[in-house]
Fold each of these.
Amino acid sequence: MIDRWTQGRVPAKPHTVFRDLETGTLYYEECFTREGFDGPYSILYHRRPTTLETSCRASDRGFAAPASASGDGAAPLLRRLFDSGKLAAGGSMIDCRVPLLFNADVTISVARPTKSDDVFLVNGDGDDLFFVEKGSGIVQSPFGRLPFRAHDYVAVPKGCPYRVLLDGADNRFFGIECRRGFHVPAQFRNSAGQLRMDAAYTHRDFVRPVLPTEEEAASAPRRIVSKRRDRWTDRSLPESPLDVVGWDGYAYPVAFPILKFQPKTGLIHLPPTIHITFAAGGAVICSFVPRVTDTHPEAIPCPYPHTSVDCDEVIFYVEGDFTSRRGVGSGAISLHPAGLPHGPHPGAYEGSIGSRDTRELAVMIDTFLPLDRTAAAEAIEEPGYHESWKSPSP
């Protein structure tokens, strides 16, 4: 959903006869649409109909649906910190994703896969956005091979068959399932739909898929495991879903390196909205990257305390020097719920005076609906985080 892209061969006009040049065999069109037929779409051309299957049954594969921790609805309103490094590694992406926080709009999870997917996943519940904390590989889909590496965002649209092929066994992903869609913020585009010159990134910053080869299609799995309403279905196909000879359109998987993000800097500290990178229904996703800080000689570079009464704030800490927080390291996830003041740890606000740059890397999500914890989140919560804001005894 960044811009129109084309791979392989496509006919001069959609919905017209399109045949193999050598055999005369008719190709089968697939319209991959969003918002019914009113939103972004792509059109793919397959060697075989996409509706064919040899079996369809309930599946025992797939990650667990999010569910509130016991008594979470009655839990006190606290700032919370979770250590994702305590989660066990193992399995493939389709099975090992662990939901930690969720509401009706998003599910926030962590995955530590050690092996590649042996089947294709179709997420019928939402767009999948991953931040790669560690690891590299490719996302394989009918749109092609999409390479990724550490500190990339990877976005896969709802309903797209894909599997994650890993280069090694040590991988960490921070995931956001966007149940009401994922998109580039409207303020980044001009009236023609092009990314503006003052947007936080350019069209050139995005990595796009390269069409699969016939050899890839022949060796790929012929099994798709689909999720819809958090229920899993297993479909077997006569051929792999990679039998695509060409496609064009606006809806397809993309990758974006977080260090390509270019936030604004001002005379004095600007609000967190300057860090907005992507938008989703009911949420925004922000990137904190190394940058020059405010230029006023008496500026306070540390984020000012603020009472955000309409948003829950989640931060995934990747690496660097987190000047506003004590006791957090790589893989930590903080939750600051609406109804409590958000702000730096005592001493950090004044201590930031005179600094000229930041050296932190983190992903932030603000949600407008309150987030619930899962039992898995409760199990990795760090005690005493809320109390770390207490004033010292007189």
Amino acid sequence: MQEDLARVRAAAAREIEAAATEEALEAIRVRYLGRKGELSVVLRGLGALAAGERPAMCALANAVKDEITAALAAREARLAATALARAADERIDVTAPGRRRPRGHVHPLRAAEDEIVAIFLSLGFDVADGPEVEDDFHNFEALNIPASHPARDMHDTLYVEPGTDVLLRTHTSPVQIRVMREHPPPLRVVIPGTVYRRDDPDATHSPVFQQIEGLMVGPTVSFAELKGVLVLFLRRLFGAETRVRFRPSFFPFTEPSAEVDMACVRCGAGGGAAGCRVCKGSGWLEVLGCGMVHPHVFRAVGYDPERVQGFAFGLGIDRLVMQRRGIDDLRLFYENDVRFLEQC
């Protein structure tokens, strides 16, 4: 019987120490001290002992019972104290000063977009927006890019469903078409937004990137006005001394067309500086494309090209920010690494 009492004492002590709730402690009390508990089972064997052994075994049994009872009470007190401390930690003190949540900041691409839009707003442009899921007419046909036009190969289009004309817009130019179809001239708008092309991500390409385009239409809009607007824009963005040049180019939706370059933001040398990793030693950075709106585009939206003319331009916000900040990998903008974003 002495071995049985020792076994009950040890087992009860282990279970009490491991109990995590008051309910678990009550279950242990019933299992060991209840009328049908393990200690009661052991005590029923007292009658089989010799008369001289019973007093000692009774004293030992009472001591085990007292130890189990004391251990239960101590463990219950500790659990109650822990619960009280947790409640104090979790309690809302309505009289305490509020704790401000940490504030983030605008994504560097959105910050650049806001800055660019603000410049054009100051020049009298409005802001337009349109759907990112487009159809073939607005994305290609109305922009003088028919199905057989080789320029389509440059866009690497993502179609929503194969065999349909529903696609993710490859540029923000479709919004120009929508604006002109809805509003008569004169008009001047800028169109920022996200565009999509089927490009494999690398240091200079992404299947998702940001563009902003501009459109100005009126009876006497000229290429000289186009140059004036873009030179002013670049000098407000990069500094009053920024040098700008225009090079002849080709776009299916403008004629004549031009590429616009600016003096390198890193070396600032017209002839380039050896070893400059930004301009590759040329001294110039290509920043946007532009031109006079093609007559076919005006006809597609119901404008009379004999009565109106206009200019359009477009640039990639991602690469513009890369040039301004000296960033050499486009993917950093979309990986959402907080360490990078906090530096921009």
Amino acid sequence: MLALGKAAVPMARVVEENWEGPLSGLAVTRHGAAEPLGRIDVVTAGHPVPDEPSVEAARRLLALAHSATADDLVLLLLSGGASALACLPGQGLSLAEKQRVTSALLRSGAAIGEINCVRRHLSGIKGGRLAAVAHPARILTLAISDVVGDRPEDIGSGPTAPDPTTIEEAGAILRRFRVEEPKQGWSESIKSVDGEYRIIGSAREAVDAAAAKAAALGYTPRIIGYDLVGEAREVAGAHARLACQAPFGTALISGGELTVTARGDGSGGPNQEYALALAIALQGAEGIHALAADTDGIDGSGEAAGAFVHPAILGSTSGAEEALARNDSGGFFAAAGGLFVTGPTGTNVNDLRIILIGP
């Protein structure tokens, strides 16, 4: 069994508790989220930017897959964060260069599908390559989707999924976002993969659960969308207009994954930037409260899952507009007392945003 991602440990634990017969393997999760398992080894690695343990984890996963025979089942438990947690740079590409490309794309405003397209073509494990190494063993992937559209090639950059994209498309993405292209490390991904692939969780479950809870509390839930994308501050402006027009007692709920084009040197993440832009757009509108958070418990690279918005938030500290201009939503909400801190949740199904109109 191979488990990879922010939910690797809890997913592996469920398999351990229910599996009859021989079982061995490796679970790879983010630093700080390791918990011991019975029959499965656990290691940690870097996220959202890969590190040396990420490289070692990728090599161990490939070695285990390669050791499987035609009589074995290779069970891959895949969840959000896998792209960084198992990183094997392509031939001739250094880890430092892969880190540079990843960091630049994360700050560029590129969507996760675009980032993962580049990752697949600069990798020795993504883009179906793990499945290719495991052949002729039977392969079953159980995936929790953290990407808009739930495309297998984008979940963890698709280590066991066929990839329809090309090197040319990956290079075009780098040029579009003005990220210097690596000279080495490129290779075409796998276009056909044997094996079974099942998505067992996604943003839809989180959004529907939030809507059910809102209804139980007496609100009328309105789902804006399960898979919203776009620049966080622009989406926040549109949602502020919806909130101001919504009837009393409405809960506006949405999922998806927003992006931030980083132009400043501040801290925070897409959910905190959304929350700050929402607060500025609402300008203290009476009776409107909101939460924007990443379901994995980490928004961006900080320690907060997201941030709260309430009518008095702008009055609790100064410089909201300046903070937004510097992409310093984290600094603003830290001073205002609006950070939402959960710690790692052990899963990831993208972002969840809730706006309540009423008490």
Amino acid sequence: MNAKWEAIFKEDEMLITEWAQKRNPIPKIGIFVVTYNAVNTLVQTLKRIPPIILDIVEEIFVFDDASRDDTYLLAEGFKKVYGIDKMTVQLHSRNLGYGGNQKAGYLHAIEKGLDYVILLHGDGQYAPEALPSLMRPILEQQMKVVLGSRMLIPGAARKGGMPLYKFIGNKILSAYQNLMLGSTLSEFHSGYRVYSIKLLERIPFTLNSDDFHFDTEIIAQIHELGQRIHEVPIPTYYGDEISYVKAVRYAWNIVKTMLDYKLYRWGLKEDIRFNIVDSPPSYQLKGHPLSSYMQIVGLVPYEKKVLDIGCGKGHLLPFLLKKRSEVFGIDVLAPESIDKGFSAYHQLNLEQNPHIPYPAESFDVIILADFIEQIRNPEAILNEVRRTLKPEGNIIISSGNIAMWLYRMFLLFGSFPYARKGILDETHVHLYTFSNLCQLMRRSGFRILKRKGTPIPFELVFNNSLGQILTYLYYGFVKFWKRLFAYQFILVCEKLKLR
């Protein structure tokens, strides 16, 4: 280790020492050492843990993942020779895998009532001298997740001996993961990590893989919680340790995990790994010009009296007000949770009582944006819409396309993946094709004036300019064949004239 790194770690070690002397009580921190066939490296790794860290941590637990050598006996001998009473050594009866070993260790940390757990590899690849640097953010800033990064300092990884193919692979995969998560981490593939136990208790990490991409899955779960990840620079070291990572399989598993997560976030797939109970589905306004909401706003004439049924928190309201509309809202949400600006707002459950509290022929435009699929008896509400719509008024209605090519593929392979949002939102009680939706409107006494389709909202998937471009490109397919490619349908209708 060069003098620069030694100086950094020494400074952090002094700050940790001062912190420990001035503050009491110290959080209960555990160092979790994962080992497998580490008989040649484990002792040196443990001996390099700074004395101040040995003093202040609650426990050091070494989990041997059914090594084929004498790693377990060596760890037990180290504990006795050096008299480290706070050290626990456990031998798995069978090999759990890298991810499986972590699951066992985190469950142990939770059971012991720790506050934080630091993951350290027994093969010496990650410098134990860097432990004070990883602990500083949790002690001084109460950070919940800290990653040691070999890529924060440009050029440091290669100088530390990282092989070129691993460096390039790390860069490519990390760029891909940042793209999919909308994050800016310098790397995702460091095994030097600190987790808050309270955070781990909120994450279903036991559902993750037992393989090496466990680390990627847990980052996606942390991202789903909206938890910030803090990075600190660490040195890179490659010695005689044996790597058990199969590069191609590892890369494929990461690619697939990120795709699974995006499909889940997109509402196209249910995935129990990312369905975190205390993380309610967050609504993202589809602000792309070709999205259903923006197309609906574009279809509303200026200076009209508009009723927005199922208005949510008023996502359309600011755009309608720019068109000098007089906007009225109906939703089940409480008035205090609604954005201000409505001319009037009614908290109503139209499913239970399908009555719109306005006289006949009150509105120029009535909007039902992504609402009708949540109603068991849509005809009753559409009858009320017909009653309160002016003779020359329009209803603008949108709904997801259950016959889109992707859902046809799901059915072809025997899957129907309900999710917490999107077209297959588990709260949707009706799912519509283009024909079904048109038939519903005709049965309810409306004539269809315009039929429009929306593209898949790639801008919500990639959160960058690439998503914007893909959305525009995909819209060409929607124009070519709405029934197959449209993500959602929008219909503009008027009342049928009774003779």
